[in-house]
Each structure stands twice: as C-alpha cells, then as structure tokens.
Amino acid sequence: MDSTFKSPVDMLQHWVEQYGDNIYLRQPINGQYLDFSWREVQQKMQQIAGGLRHLGLQPGDKVAVLSKNCAEWFITDLALMHGGYISVPIYPTANADTIRYVLEHSEAKAIFIGKLDYWADQESGVGGDILRMAMPYDTMPAQYQWETLLNLGQPLIDTAAPTAEQTMTLIYTSGSTGKPKGAIQTFASYAWTCKAVVRDLKTDGEDRLLSYLPLAHITERVAIEGSSFYSGSRVAFVESLDSFVTDVQRAQPTVFFSVPRLWSLFQKNIIDKIGYRKLNFLLKVPIISGIVKKKIHQGLGLEHCHLLGSGSAPIPPSLIAWYHKIGLNISEAWGMTENSAYSIINHPFDARKIGTVGHAVEGCEIKMADTGELLVKSPGLMQGYYKQPEVSASSFDADGFFHTGDLCAIDSDGCVTITGRVKDNFKTSKGKYVAPVPIERKLAQDPHVELICVIGSGLPHPIALVQLSEGAALQPREEVRTSLKATLDSINPNLESHETVDAIVVVSEAWDVDNDVLTPTLKIKRHVLEAKFSAKVDGLRGGKVRWECEIE
C-alpha cells in the first residue's frame, strides 16, 4: 500500500492541526453566514459517525445522501468516510422512481435527507425499512434529526483510517439512456484526482470556493469538495436560486466552475443590461473597454477569480470566445463519472484551443481507437460498475483504457475535440449514417440558440430541434427566423448530401430535468426528443425554419 496515501479524513486532521480555528465552511442562513471552523467540522464528523455506530450501522454499509449542497453535506460525507461507510449520493432533483431505484440497487441501509425543493414529490421513493436522518433544514419526515444525531452515542474517535483500496462511494451516472449505473470509486482514485486538481489549478488555503453544482455529480465532488480537502481552501454555499447572484458576490470566489447553461444565462443578462451593439462598441474603445470589463466582472461577482471552468456538457466555442473578449477566460474540461471527472482540460487557458477540451492532465493517458472513440487511462478510473461485472469488463480494453463512448479528434498538440457520441450516430431512411454533434456545433453558433438537438433516425434527412435563448424568445419571430435560416443556409452547402438539415423546428416547451429531456447534469436525452418529434417533423423539407405550433 502507498505509505504516502492521505484520505480526506487524514487531510482534515492535517488542517485542524495547522489552522484549527480558521473558517472552513460558510453556510448562508437567512442571508447570514453560519461559519464552521476546521475543528468544528472534525468534531461534527466524529459525532455523526458515532451516531451511526450507535444506530447499528456497520463499516461497509451503504448510506445514501439526498440533499442540495450545504455545509452538512460535506460533514456527512466526511462522517461516512470516517466510519468506513460507502456513500451513495443522489441528485436533489431526482424523481421518486430514480430515488427508489438507486436505494434498492445500492442496498442502502440509511439515507441522509437535507435541503430539497420538492421533497413531498420525492418522498414516495424513500420507502421500505430504510433509516431516515434529516439535516437541519425543512425536509421530509425522518426518524432522527441532525441535532439528535450529533448527541447520539459517543463521538467516533479511535477507528481505523480509510485505506487506499477501500471503496469510498458509489456514484450513479445521470445517464442519458437507460437506468443509472453505479460507478465504484475507491479512496485511492478519489484522492489521486483531487490532488491532481489542486496540483494543476494551484489552489491553496488562500482560495475561496463556491459550492452550488450538485454534489451528487462527480465534478463538484472532486473539483470543489475534494480540492478543498487537499488544498485547505475555504468553501461557501448558495442559499437558494433567488439569492444566487448575491451569494456569489458575497463569497468572492477565486475559482469558479459552472455549466454551459449558466454561462449562457450570464451572457444574456449582460447583453440585456448593456445592449449587444453598445457593448461591442464600448469594448473597442481602449480606456472605456477596461472599465466596462471590470464592471461586468464585479457584477458577476467574479472579479477575484484566477480560474474559471466549464464542464458537464459541451459549451459552444462562440460562447467561450465571447467571454474571452470581455476578459474572462473559461477553461473547458472533459471528464466522466467513471474517471472521477478530471482527465482533460484547456488549462492554462489557450485561446488558440477554443473548441477543444484541452490536453490530458499529468498522469492521464489518452488514445483514439480505430473507431474514433476516445479511450482514457488514469489512477482516477473506477473499479467498475456495481453489480454489473459484464458491463464493467466490456468497458475497458486489454490495456486498461476505459471506453468513454465519446468520438474525438486529437490534434498535433495533443488537444482533444469531442465530435460526438458513439451511440448518437443515426441512420436516415436512405440508409446513410449521420453524426449529429458536429452539425449541432455549427448550428449552435447562431446567438439565438440556447440548446439544440439534431434528430433523424428513419427520416429522409436530419431535422434540428432548437430551444431559443431567453433573449431570442423575446425578439420578433421573423427576426429570429431570418437569423436561423441564414445560419442553416451557410452550413448546409458544406455538409454531405445525406447530412443536410431539412428544417429547423423551434420547440415551444423548455427542455429541463422535470420533463425528462435533460439529465441532472443538463445533457440532452436525444432518444426522448426523437420519440416525441420524429413523426411530427417527418415531411418538413426545403431548409425551412418553423415553430412547433406551425407543424401541429
């Protein structure tokens, strides 16, 4: 075993010894911070772990966590590690069926329930004899409340430290198809990845992080929670969606990760406030340009950031280029649940590589299969999928490289461009295969487009389904139609004849997690849209732009 291995519990002890009374976690309650020092977090970790022992839970038992991000999420996670339990995070937006499936499949003995927006709709998924424990927020009924747990039994102090090969967590993929799969991550794979993030992004005890993307997702679990364990960075949380902007400004993060949809929303708010033409003009005036950029950075609460990142889903290169123009450099990264979310990143930011997801990080190997599929290998790889040995075995090649399912191109500098998904390619009624993602990337250059999905399985030609950006939805329809038509007409001549897009259809219903079009990580479920629209759009021809109501 690696004698230098340090688990998050070991690192917590390190920071307690170094900076015990310094603030570690900042939880906003009614607009005011409730602060937790490193020492207080350790004490609560020991108390919660002791409470679980008192309730009869044994090392190796699975314990689920269903909550939005909060300080108690970190404390619970540490307590589960400390007690030798295997954590099973569940997305706070998961519906009752998904919750029930994950709890049953993982054989979880207990569940921590915390901040939730719609717990009444989710409660039926938390059934059976499972033990419920509640964090100190308005949430579904539970047998044990947080304060009770803290005083139940003796604090767990003298216990075996987690070992490198020990299973730390089962992380269920949000999966755009089929049932979620439980990726088995050990303490070794998690620790390696967290330390790699800290090494590359150069975070330390002076950094301020903000935790708001779902902790049930591996990216937040590694990049924010995990990196704080190994860097000593302070972490603040967001109280609610309504207070988000205020919470960001108050936290003054020095590192900020987000998803494409939020970067797009930030852009819309900036343009709405200043005006597109006026902003472009001001950015060309030397002295004024600097003042405008500074005001934008301050308005977003990102003026102290030395690193901005985007992940979880593809971000349009045009959006990164736009932010680069206003002085905010967003490093796009690529990762998966199966490789602890950190393998490839455009960092240090290189504007010449916008459109790629960057290069492999130190310690990670990548290669392209004959099929064009991206294969990765790193110490951050999972052990396999829980209870699915055959799927696990087929996910790795003979050399231990993981089959990502992503199609790619790798340039002479080793930078990777994701060109699609192996399973996304479809065959039209003419018997020709179409790769939709490169077409989507081209169409997404139109500023009116927020989300796009090209479908066409069994159709004569592909059809592009478009969700308009919020700003575009307020513009005159003919103005938007003209722009989308011009974009389509500029792209179709450069496509193979069987790839040309017959029409763009502007959808009327917003795509989101609630209507099952998006995964919790905001990836589009192509099969859901194909099932809904294929018959409806069959027959559209001639490169038209139509609203959904026009094709009923």
Automatic annotation (TrEMBL):
Residue ranges constituting the AMP-dependent synthetase/ligase domain according to the UniProt record: 12-386
Alphabetized UniProt keyword annotations: ATP-binding, Nucleotide-binding
Top-level taxon of origin: Bacteria
Signal peptide positions (record): none
Gene3D superfamilies for this protein: 3.30.300.30, N-terminal domain of ligase-like (3.40.50.12780)
Pfam family, one: AMP-binding_C_3
Catalysed reactions, as listed in the record: a long-chain fatty acid + ATP + CoA = a long-chain fatty acyl-CoA + AMP + diphosphate
Official protein name in the record: AMP-dependent synthetase
Origin species: Shewanella colwelliana
